[in-house]
Amino acid sequence: MKLHEYQAKALLAKFGVAVPKGSVARTPEEAEKASADLGGKAVIKAQAHTGARGKAGGVKVANTPAEAKQHAAAIIGMQLVTHQTGPQGLPVGSVLCEELIDIEREVYLSVAIDNSAGMPVVIASPQGGMDIETVAAESPDAIFKQHIDPACGFREYQARELAFACGFEGPTLGPTVNLIMGLVRAFEASDGSIAEINPVVLTKDGRVLAADAKFSIDDSAAFRQKANMELQDRSQEAAKELEAHDAGIQNYVKLDGNIGCLVNGAGLAMSTLDAIKMAGGDAANFLDIGTANSPEAVVAALRIIGSDADVKAVLVNIFGGLARTDVIAQGVIDAKTQGLLPQPTVVRLAGTNVEEGLRILDASPVELVRADGFADAARRVVEAAK
Amino acid sequence: MSILVDKDTTFIIQGITGREAVTMARECLDYGAKLLGGVTPGRKGREVHGLPVEDTVRAFTDRTRVDAAVVSVPPAGAADAVFEAIDAGIPLIVCVTERIPRKQVAQFVEYAAQKGTRIIGPNCLGVISPGKTRVGGIGGAAESTRRAFMPGRIGVMSRSGGMTVEIANSLSEAGLGVSTAVSIGGDAIIGSTYAELMPLFDADPQTEGIAIYSEPGGRAEYELADYMARSGSKKPIVAFMAGRFMDEMPGMRFGHAGTIVEGRADTTASKIANLTAAGIIVAEKIGDIPRLLSERLGK
Fold first, then answer.
1. CA angle at A2 for the pair A94 and B105, rounded to the nearest 5°
2. Which of A3, A250, A255, A362 is most open to solvent, judged by the fewest CB atoms within 10 Å of its CB?
3. Whole-model pTM above 0.80?
């Protein structure tokens, strides 16, 4: 679950990370007041779950409170379109109004999961403000890493090593170490999955500040991060995904194509999307129904797919292990009978109780296309979607 | 021979009174596995399919040899169950539970490494050596498991539980069969990776070749390529890489927690190039795996 920049900064500040002075505004008037509180000058930043906001017109500098009000009026309510959002963009419901800072130097700082080491890693680079992938590709020597050991935690000397590597010394060393330690504490205490401060800024007046902040919380930790999970801004999520989530379907992702998919198992679902692509089609969604232990659960999932206006044909691809193909077959028939799945539907069943599953399909007057193997299924559904 | 488990492997299921665990226990027993019973704190004295339920793991380990534990406990208690099994000295823990907080997984994976405990998973379906035993729900009902997993020559490792069965099925249909199949788990952090299990397959005389199912995200495929170069392993490996469509969708997560393209190295294109360079054959389709392995096995 992603936080907005203003939420991330508030969280980081609680753990001792220094952030610029500022506040969030949901109306132009609030932005006017916020900038007056800052002494008139302010930077007005769109709050949406994407990077590259500046290039898209989502970040403006105001020299007076009146200008801040104008900028906020232009930004609040816009659809912010960046290379990360897709053509439809993301709605902007608020702006962060912050003090203008005089930048002496920018560095990069983040915490991410290192799968190979099996633990989080703190990454720092003196080349701040840039895309870290580009830095890693062009100057790998400018990337520095220190792991967060699950048993003994992150030690202060590790923060010092990163600070030294980024060129902090003398009076700036202490504040930098504090900032790094604060970031790590916030990440660990909040079940972070990724946290990025790009850039950390050394100001001309000698402060070390988190000038931007991204923070995501591990969805698997939702049960013990209730307060943070309440910060979720549902306007930033795709409507179909919210609908699926509310129906208890956790593994649904909306995509751009026109073939609806219901599959059991994430691996088979992924392979099914590949097979559709290879057959010349594009999936409208990813959906892993999991063990699907009742026809009702299958109907609930098919309702999400069937009501998607983009969907022209549907592929049900099941290899029953824990999931029972007879339960799935009954769910498909029920959804069809209830008129929830009007699109042509291709069904491939294999595995647990497949004889019974096929018998249920055969016994029903509902019209379905049957397929053997998923390459065949993909070919048939691409044909049906044309 | 087999790896990790054999026909004499004794095990317990932690969380055995849960609905999915009850089904899993039935399927393991039907397959002939040596399931001793299970643990659900507060439920001592109950029975599941005639097997005892205890409050603690120690209640079993104090009186008998327990080779493995399957953890099928809801996410909030799963890490605790793993720690309990490690501290009881059980050498192999198969953690089935999905959606355990990443931080807790990191903790028990490291603790297990210190104690010399082998962990498979989390977010996996378990281990099977066809015709001998199975530890976990892998394959589903015993009858369809017997059909999909014929005893044979190929070791299987998979980040997807379901796809372990798809691959085994294709190997069985082709007459190659399976020596041991391991569902290694779909999370970002798992107890045993391809590279960590490969030495076991290399040492297993029954395993003549290996089939692997892989996905975008993480570095496990690079470690496998490194292992192949370092060890001089001679057994042929055929890998299938799902999620090619994801290469153009950075930042999106599909199903498995570990499956996300965050950087160039996470893409299937980059992984396929790396595996190929290490001499690992990458199959375009699941159905191609048996033929590609047969060609390398030369019979």
1. 160
2. A362
3. yes
